[in-house]
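Lecture 7 notes: from sequence to structure.

We start with a single chain of 338 residues. Read the sequence below before looking at the structure.
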Amino acid sequence: MPITIYDISKMAGVSTATVSRVFNGSQSVKPATRKKVLDVIEKYGYTPNAFARGMGLRSARTVGILCADSSDLFLAKAVYFLEQKLQENGYESLLCCTGYNLDIKKNYLSLMLSKGVDSIILVGSNFIGPTELENQYINEAATQVPIMLLNASYDCENVYSIFCDDYHTMYDATTSMQESGISDIIYLYSSNSYSGKKKLEGFQAAITASGIPAPSQNIFYYDGNLEHLDEIADFVAQIADSGVSFHGIIASDDSLAIGSIKYAQRNGIRVPDELSVIGYNNSILTSCCTPELTSIDNRLEPMTHQLVRTLIQVLADEEMPKKSIFSGQLIQRGSTLF
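Now the structure, written as tokens:
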């Protein structure tokens, strides 16, 4: 059986990231280390698929960035921060917007590898699937270049995860609303991504801890376009019309929260006196409604800075933590009383 980059790293006694840098001709690898890797490659006649362009080339100083949807406020801002920090460190970037189809994501990842990039950044938790099979394309890519995940966690050699602790952040936000005297809270969400699931689990745990039975009755999935605020308001109205009583709404995204405030205004419900609303992402939308929206800041800018810092050190053959976890912060504005 042909050997893999993992076999080479073990036989040479170095990390897969170091092997990848040898493939790229990076000047950051020590001569003795480079010789060990090249000796193994020569012995077994290994040819890396994506880097058959030959040994000895210098680093391209280019990083590939994949995001699902550049029109998404969170993803667009993340890409902006990443490109700024990469440029500050002398790296150019290539951007592809993949959508959410797995096969298309695989194709774009392969395209990035064929361009000879030094690393690939996957922006957003939608790149991590629920099964090992769905994540195999990431495993394979990580045998060639370091893979950086923003806002997702995944365990694999040569994969580095930088993310917000969405579970405990959402748990704390829900608890804060409960402690303000609001017990009938509903939760609105629109994504089953890694991050989306962690937020949902945090809400469920906080509700269960308060002794309220059947928390699933308080949870509603919105399967529509987050840009259509009127439709979100209609969605909340349907929940109210179904007989569900609520004086608090916590949303997994600021758009869902803004749509909830729109629902309240339509129906003469005073925010925050009669309805408290919390959003997530602390986006520009928080100041686009009256009252302004209380939202959870998931520390996007510090996360992107940490990701680039980790990436630069990894490419310099430095040992870096595989995971960097940030705690979110509840930013209180006019849509809550606490």
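The radius of gyration is 23 Å. Keep this in mind for problem set 3.
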